[in-house]
Design a protein that fits this description.
This protein has helices at residues 3-14, 19-26, 30-38, 45-54, 59-70, 76-90, 98-112, 122-133, 159-169, 182-185, 188-203, 213-216, 220-231, 280-285, 303-321; strands at residues 117-120, 139-144, 173-180, 207-212, 239-243, 247-258, 267-277, 298-299. The chain is an alpha+beta fold and 323 residues long. Helix 9 (159-169) links the parallel strand 2 and strand 3. Helix 4 (45-54) crosses helix 5 (59-70), helix 5 (59-70) packs antiparallel against helix 6 (76-90) and helix 8 runs parallel beside helix 9. The longest helix has 19 residues, at 303-321.
Length: 323
């Protein structure tokens, strides 16, 4: 119990020698003051705030200490971590400038936790994806309409791809379905890019699947999924992954940004905003796993098989579009 330490600090600061005076200072009954001093009872919120004011401390510190004292042994470390965070954020130096900015970023993350969803942009989003996959133990189910981000000049290559490889070696089963549009598979350059992406994925141990967008649009499962993602702000393409059936990431949109002051360099694709959610409604409504059970999603078995499926898709499209 740590509350008794703070009681002793109050007694020392104000020269208190008995429980009667202590009780008056804390505005509680004498028996309660005795219980607090001996660690037999944890003070409530009002008393914690009063103690903090008497000691000129951040009230959050006393509130967290009280929660830590009440917590079962296996949860005390979590409250200790929270207490460390309060201590850090209460003693932030002004220099170097990076430090207060870093603490502010941490504070923004903490404020988002109540909503059970975190949001990141740009390079920070890519970094969080790598951190997240390092925590996975069992499975990843992913759907990618913006498959180009996996190209060798894309933002997910090579760091995130290598993180996938590490996860697979640790026993994680990763399934990823890439969705290709008609306009893409009639372009030889884009077909070559798609094959490079899928071969890279398979090389690191990912179970690779693919679907043709115009066919997948006929699936009620995909229609419901697309509608649910649209409700959550996804503008055009679904790019999402479910980790261990307990945390979901999805990109709201992507943005093309140019390197160089004059803007003449080739644009780089960046995540506009990435959401990381563990809200149960999101896990239920936005789960990409059911797509793998539809007849429109095919397993990638190599370049020849893929090209055969592309030819079949194009012939069907031509036949249905003929008068």
């Amino acid at each position: 119990m740590e509350i008794p330490k703070y009681i002793e600090q109050i007694k020392e600061k104000y020269g208190i020698t008995n429980d009667y005076v202590l009780a008056k200072k804390l505005k509680v009954s004498q028996p309660e003051a005795n219980w607090f001093r001996r660690g037999r009872k944890v003070p409530n919120t009002s008393v914690c705030i009063r103690m903090a004011n008497l000691l000129d401390k951040n009230p959050m510190e006393l509130l967290i200490v009280a929660q830590k004292d009440k917590a079962p042994p296996d949860e005390k470390s979590h409250w200790a971590m929270a207490l460390t965070a309060v201590d850090v954020m209460s003693n932030v130096p002004e220099r170097p400038r990076y430090i207060p900015q870093k603490v502010e970023d941490i504070g923004q993350e903490l404020r988002q936790f109540e909503s059970q969803m975190l949001s990141y942009e740009g390079n920070v989003a890519h970094t969080e994806m790598e951190r997240l996959i390092r925590s996975v133990k069992v499975s990843v189910d992913s759907i990618m309409e913006r498959w180009q981000v996996w190209k060798r000049d894309g933002p997910l290559f090579p760091n995130y791809l290598m993180a996938n490889q590490v996860a697979v070696r640790q026993g994680v089963k990763i399934r990823r379905v890439f969705i290709f549009k008609h306009s893409q598979v009639i372009d030889d350059t884009q077909v070559a890019d798609a094959l490079q992406v899928m071969n890279d994925q398979r090389r690191v141990g990912v179970s690779v699947y693919f679907a043709f967008g115009e066919d997948l649009d006929q699936s009620l499962t995909f229609q419901r999924l697309a509608a649910d993602y649209k409700k959550h702000g996804v503008e055009a393409e679904i790019n999402a992954a479910l980790f261990d059936n307990e945390i979901l990431i999805f990109s709201r949109s992507y943005d093309e940004r140019s390197l160089g002051i004059d803007g003449t360099a080739p644009p780089i694709t960046m995540i506009d905003q990435l959401h990381i959610s563990w809200h149960q409604d999101h896990l239920h409504d936005l789960n990409p796993a059911p797509l793998f059970e539809t007849r429109y999603v095919l397993e990638y078995r190599g370049e020849r098989s893929f090209k055969t499926q592309v030819d079949r898709f194009l012939k069907n499209r031509k036949r249905h579009s003929s008068p």
